[in-house]
Input
Amino acid sequence: MSDDPAMEIVANCAKDVPCVAVLRGHDGPVSCCAFDARSSLFCSGSEDGSFKLWKSVDGDWKCVKTVDCGSAVTSCQFQPEGAAGLLCTGSADNLLRVWKALKGDCVTVLAGHKDRVSACSFDPLNGDLVCSGSDDTSVRVWRVSKAKELRHYKGHTSPITSVSYNPNGDLVASASQDRSVRIWSARDGKSVAVMEGHGGPVHGLAFHTKTEWLVSASADKTLRIWRESDGNFLREVKGHKGAATCVAFDPAYGTLMATAEADGLKGRT
Output
């Protein structure tokens, strides 16, 4: 066990993880997926204009609901544990929709973006707040119960690819095709930091669950680790042979980091 978490992550790179299920049924490419807070329900969204809900039944994952959204589904996320069990989806028709997941009932439509919604993320401590990123280069924060836009973050110059709240819910991070990552205050809307240094579009980002790390994944084949409080660059992680497309930490302990790449190889852990 290393004293440096970053070195431990690099050392664990490229472990094989067995596939436990292949879920089929969409008529187009699958663009997003998410587990609910209890990992008992799984959502997949597709360019076929639908999302599907899957549930484990006696060890087998079964599709229990298919909902037609009328436009390509680009992002999805469930509310945090303890909330009302709602699901948010973003789509190519510039809208976010909030659903009663298993019923398939749309309870709220959030309109304001001027182009495709590319990403969404619930506040981990307040399931009534959700942020979204769009190809219109903006990041917005919404109050779900009021269907109201609360914040409108401007600064990126190219489409947004990923958004995320930090574990405390007081910061929002956004990644963009403009090769930058930005951190915003979720409370007053002010810019906290602008992080530049990637040599290509930034496709994904993730806050570490236990430290002040924010990790970004880029088309330049690297990951960069930043300090969330001030945006200072801490470390570069290399190893991918193609564009790094997404990154995630295990929520329980934060000792594993998973990334994926666009070279056709398996994801890395």
